[in-house]
Amino acid sequence: MILDLFAGPGGWSHALTVLGAHDVGLEWDEWACKTRAAAGHTTIRTDVAQYPTWPFTGKTTGLIASPPCQAWSMAGMRLGLMDQPLVHQAVTDLAQGRDTRTRLLGACRDERSLMAAEPMRYLYALNQAGEPEWVAMEEVPDVLPLWRQYAAILRSWGFSVWTGILNAADYGVPQTRRRAILLASRTRTAEPPVPTHAKVAEPESLFGPGRARWVSMAQALGWGATDRPVPTVCAGGGPGGGPEPFPSGSRKALADARDRGTWKRHPCSTGQKPSARAPVASPSGARWAWSLRSNNQANATVQGLDEPAGTLFFGHRANECVWVADPVDGQIHEDGPMPDPVRITAAEAGLLQTFPADYPWQGNKGQRFSQIGNAVPPRLAAHLLAPHLGRTLGPDDFALAA
């Protein structure tokens, strides 16, 4: 089997499905488990830190791990950085068969920090049986020093290992999401997958076609550069199963839209596969260029529709992603009011993570956004996993909205 620790809603799992394989996922979050079940992924709902390792020994070909990133992420308080010495100590101890997690956990500033050491507990047990054949792990960039510690241990056990930072946009993901990656193998030289895309398209050469330009949000969503996103109101998403509350500012946006008569419901909001639409002009003839603002903070990344998104992360009000508009000609039209910012929908966010348009996200709006933001982009995951499964992926071998 392929064991997937901290499996989430199925980023790695969907990639494996595309590659003709499947995993057994260990996941604690109730709604991520429900999403996985609806998507057809095998799941054990459990605490990875408490589940025994013996059921997997003698049966495991590959191990995948994406520990929770909240303790390390720039989107949070980053207490994991303060806990880093404790996590390194836990990895050292677990690699020698000593379980000191309880003592070390008591000294951690953030109890989630030590989850990054859990893969070593499984790796140590599996290694006693000469397993697994390969390993793939992913985390936020600040975890790279920890991956290098894992790498040193795995090399001492006979693995070839590569660690480094990869940009998801280089593999056709419409998002400049940078992640620390560890790839290890007992049977082949571990190395990063060859990038299929670049910030600037490359011309064909004697060595073959150049890399394609990074995939833009407009391409992934099926929009033109001036298409308008639309505010959506869905039933059943609020606490207790009631109507989903209006996002901040959306009541005004809906009222303005009704008055202007220019907003249209995007196919994503109704579960349909998105398709290109003709740009919509304001009554004054002004045309708006849309950008995605990654959060409400002063240093938020703002990317135009003709570019990939910045890193998508959710889970806190300050981390809301919103569509913002500017006039194409740079002029404010007095008789054509500028559209209000519109919060991104979960369907749109899922597409920008390269999940299929009809991926069966479960839970209310906040639960869906949390799953999407924490997931590994399936398209990146597929490129990381393909060599271990004897597959190769080209620029067009993994559909953005399958």
Written overview of the protein:
26% of the residues lie in helices and 15% in strands. It has 402 residues and is of the alpha/beta class. The chain folds into two domains: 2-201 and 376-389, 3-Layer(aba) Sandwich (Rossmann fold); 218-370, no CATH class. The protein has a seven-stranded mixed sheet, sandwiched between helices. A four-stranded antiparallel sheet has the order 11-10-12-13, with no helix packed on it. The longest helix has 13 residues, at 144-156. The chain starts with a strand and ends in a 17-residue tail after the last helix. Mean pLDDT is 81; it is low at 231-285. Residues 234-283 are annotated as: Disordered.
CATH architecture assignment of the largest domain: 3-Layer(aba) Sandwich
Taking pLDDT < 50 over at least 5 consecutive residues as the criterion, the unreliable ranges are 231-285
Mean pLDDT: 81
Structural class estimated from helices and strands: alpha/beta
Largest sheet entry: 7 strands, mixed
Number of domains: 2
CATH superfamily of the largest domain: Vaccinia Virus protein VP39
User: Can you identify the CATH class of the largest domain?
Assistant: Alpha Beta
Distance between the termini: 25 Å
Let me know the number of strands: 13
Share of β-strand residues = 5-15%
Sequence of strands across the biggest β-sheet: 3-2-1-4-5-7-6
